[in-house]
Design a protein that fits this description.
homodimer, about 700 residues, Rossmann fold, 5 domains, seven-stranded mixed β-sheet, 23 helices, 29 strands, ligase (chains A, B), ATP-binding (chains A, B), ATP-grasp (chains A, B), nucleotide-binding (chains A, B), tricarboxylic acid cycle (chains A, B)
Chain lengths: ~700, ~700
Amino acid sequence: MHPLEKMFRPRSIAVVGASGDPEKLGGRTLLHLKELGYQGRIYPINVSATEVQGLPAWPSVADLPETPDSALILLPAKHVAKAIDDCAAKGVKHVQVLSSGFAEEGGEGVAMQAALAEQARAHGIRLTGPNCLGSISPPDGFFGTFSSLLATAKPPPGSVGVATQSGAYGSHIYAVAGFRGIGISRAIATGNEVDIDVAEAIDYLVEDPGTRVICASLEGCSNGEGLRRALLKAAASRKPVIIMKVGSTEVGAAAAATHTGSLAGEDRVIDAVFRECGALRVSSIEEMLDVAYVCSIAPLPPVASAGIVSVSGGIGVLMADACIEAGLSVPPLATEALDAVRAVQPMAGGRNPIDTTAQLAGRLHVIETISQSMMGGADLGAIFFYLAHLGRDLRRFPKIEGAFLALRRNQPDRTVVAVMTHIDEVRQQLEAQGVPVFEDPTRAVRAVAGASGLRRLQTEAQPIPDVEQAEPLGLGIANEAQAKALIAAAGLPVLPEHACTTADDAAAVADRLGYPVVMKILSDDIPHKTEIGGVLLNVVDAGAVRSGFATLMNRARSARPDAKLDGVLVAPMMRGGVETIIGTLTDPVFGPMVMFGLGGVAVELFRDVAFASAPLMPERAERLIDASRGATLLKGWRGGPSLDRAALVDALCALSRFAAAHRGEIDSVEVNPFLVRESGACALDALIAFKPGHGTGKPT
Amino acid sequence: MHPLEKMFRPRSIAVVGASGDPEKLGGRTLLHLKELGYQGRIYPINVSATEVQGLPAWPSVADLPETPDSALILLPAKHVAKAIDDCAAKGVKHVQVLSSGFAEEGGEGVAMQAALAEQARAHGIRLTGPNCLGSISPPDGFFGTFSSLLATAKPPPGSVGVATQSGAYGSHIYAVAGFRGIGISRAIATGNEVDIDVAEAIDYLVEDPGTRVICASLEGCSNGEGLRRALLKAAASRKPVIIMKVGSTEVGAAAAATHTGSLAGEDRVIDAVFRECGALRVSSIEEMLDVAYVCSIAPLPPVASAGIVSVSGGIGVLMADACIEAGLSVPPLATEALDAVRAVQPMAGGRNPIDTTAQLAGRLHVIETISQSMMGGADLGAIFFYLAHLGRDLRRFPKIEGAFLALRRNQPDRTVVAVMTHIDEVRQQLEAQGVPVFEDPTRAVRAVAGASGLRRLQTEAQPIPDVEQAEPLGLGIANEAQAKALIAAAGLPVLPEHACTTADDAAAVADRLGYPVVMKILSDDIPHKTEIGGVLLNVVDAGAVRSGFATLMNRARSARPDAKLDGVLVAPMMRGGVETIIGTLTDPVFGPMVMFGLGGVAVELFRDVAFASAPLMPERAERLIDASRGATLLKGWRGGPSLDRAALVDALCALSRFAAAHRGEIDSVEVNPFLVRESGACALDALIAFKPGHGTGKPT
């Protein structure tokens, strides 16, 4: 049985710290268990009372007449350890510590939390919290939480599961879901996560037959592998995961670090991991619930395209714009389909969006023909109907309900959405037919685009392959020549070049290579050569090579007097092609990652760089390339030739395997520029940084 | 009196085409006038009835006992002309034609619409429509419209004015506003706009003392000057205008063109014009209403910074991220302010966002000290309170109302926002104190950021100066040398270069200029030289110049056998600096516009180009530069020197004056690249396109 099953659906539960005063957390939690429909046995634990809120109470869990499935602990922090021991003595294996006063308060709370973690492990107890808001399972009437929401609202039962670290975040999500009529299957807040974390909660919700869609929110993450595994499991079972990770900006990340003490990695790495594992990242709670709403009611669009039928030309255009911006194409209908539309609605304008004009209101019977014709006239993953205020009109609305029903029956795998002002009764009737209803046209489009993206991500998701650790390189630092030799050995194409220690030597090499050549200073101590003028391009003859040798050595000596200079590299000058940057880095949570971007100012000025987990297989390398605008340049720019994308894919795969195989030693690799040419590609420069304490070279 | 006054607030009104059947548009409109609170005199006009819906009816406006302030015409299109004549005969000067069947249906509708426009002009009648939804003025109980919304809901009176072309768009806006409790002052849909357009409606709403905020939506625009004038008038009177223009994508623009027949200019020109005129462009109706809501209740934030107080660390971080992404800084509080916060709430974490922890719920009295300390600890334009579910709790909420009141009183020009789940009663109480209330944290932030942006735009807005038309240039086409001579005469720095007709000539020029040099083919028939290999960079000596001359001529001859070749340009090779593109274009609606962007792939690959109306004064030129990422490069890149921004500003101003002074002749100018250097700047290439039919050169 999944360890979370007893936290969501216990047959019996102890409330340690139960109180008669509903203003106190232990009183409020007991009240929620008593009053909101829970059918299991409730055991209030209170050191001094024999009865609490009308229920018989016990001084300790150890005294209970049975071993409860789970326990909620709401005592002050300093009493929690004793309560855990009592639970262990009684054989309780599933405990939620709702008490605060642990690591989040700093000081001795940190040590108390570490002790709590160790205590649970020693007893074989699975533990949620501390400092968590508890769990709910509305279909079971189970509300094991002190959330203040429950004083005024009870989230309705449904199929959306919620897993968050933050309790307020989670209760905000299920509160708003409830107000909108979106039902909840289970929700849990994992708090300080000494044991159960959001990843494990997601894992439970994937297995839970009562959950159809998962909403998750993270503030930090320490177990990257666990999170990847849970998300991939969801994708494999086609259960949508819509996820937020706060701290996406520097200010936010700093605040999150203060708040949770977790490491802030590169936010785009998080993006990449979520995407690769088939989860949709969103940036607001409202967007999360909009997508969850669509996914919980309707099929996810099988293709990223949309049809739009609107009683208003203006709103039709608004929705077409919103589709394009959100990544849904709006293909024009085939002429025959358009003829069929015009046969029943002669004044209908456009080819998609179709503007039926407001006169549709008087001829609602034609909507079925229009919608069927649209679906026949293009491969549409979704179809939107903008119907103004028809959803408020119980006299008129039933006239078109049949059209929606027919469309859903004939196109069971397409997403059909109604956009209109509406009353709850109309909305509920449509939802029962699998038709989501929105008031705002743009939100409708963005939600469906999210569902469409989710479907694509689920299809593409695949585990990151394991890579055996290679023999240690035994280097603590690598100069440019060594770095290039290493990546060449790893299978990357590298420009032939030669380390020269004298001007004569350089001239002889250049003569052999042919002109023009490139010359670069060679020194372990000067990783960023361009900054000191340490690169000469387009050197045209032997004379220029000789004087260039002196120039480079002099510049290096004056800019970095302490640097050990190893001479000058001479290489053929490459022309044409596009300069890209490929590299790897080590994320503190998710391990080795590959990056790709355009060279020049694109990476830094436009942040046009994409990440993926290492190692890459060709399919994911292709997607990594497509995630950057650089992909456009590779197709040929302004009539130029298309470039050797296959060579780039090979290089990315090889580099990623290299980084993954040496993950113990290598911190990052930067191949910049990596020139992609009409035929072939080559690394023009390379830099490898090793992890501290590795290799035999100088300490870094 | 403003011509729209009588369309919004008539003391008497004729309904031409009034019907006893409320299913018909003429029946429904009459019903709305009769039943929803209108206090003026209503005259049903019906050719055959003496009484309609219990009111005495007349066969024609001409027969009425008085001249009504305005008339609504709801007859079939073919009868509208007669009704207009009747109105004219009676002296009615303000008419709204709600009938459809005009240009929007094509065919003879187009001619009928042209005739209608002419007829109104001839009679001196101001006309809204045809094909419009009419106007409403909820504070007057006036609903001169057949909108189906009114069957179930009546927009409440308030201070938000709405001006749209599309009727459905407008009624969607005021419907949703009403559901949210946002009251409407006036709303009008202008339909096919033969006379009154959205710009004139905005002009009215600026003058209207009952309107505090204006929401507008356009599908097309034919009167660019009128729109600029109305928006600038709003900005000058500090009345916020929140505006949408659909057709922002290619697909949307094509659909809008089908729908309205209007020209689709460059969407970023629209962006620029709205911004320059102080209006905030938004992309969804919900966003429009969110910003309007804040502006209608609270002061606009005077600085673009925010403080965040949250009972949840996670939501605080979410909001900090949202602030940064929306352009609001989140400055850390000064230490003394932080100490003051901790003095009353010791467990509070962070420096902004402040995480009070959920324990705030039990100590609500400290919120006043916390908020006052925050405001004292940084220059904050706005302060957000995330309070979980406190807004649903009538027992607890009143405990903090005083804190909001005190904050509003002590900081009357700052925006104070509550974010929480809530009931209407709590929301209304706070709104009455000038505090907007949101449920979704991200929407709250984006709305306030919109209000903040609006305030900045209003402050910056200024009219585009008039420029006297210059003497005609008398050119129909200009080769590169002529184009450079023209922009040099206009005051732009241009590289010294020389047209050479022989290889010897070129070598002699190059010797004089010094090496290396740049060589370019010179021909009127080859505007895009790089595409045919018509540019040689870095030519190092006289021999190379001679062979380069032959190379260029041969390439040009083989690529464009018909081209007339004027020789080769020789110029010094410029190194260093940043290549930018500056140029002008002629927008079909808004006239001459200036553009600025980075050279290379940035403009096309990243669409990193910004527009502004010509002519520019230095202040707007600075903003134009800052609107592109190129601004970052000018500050010095990777430790490089900062570049001569002043020279760029001068060039942009000079080029914009040139384009504006020759707006009759010149269609576009492209100076690409325009090299901005450490000291000075210079145009390396230039291209001028003339309007068809202008000048003495070849026809284009």
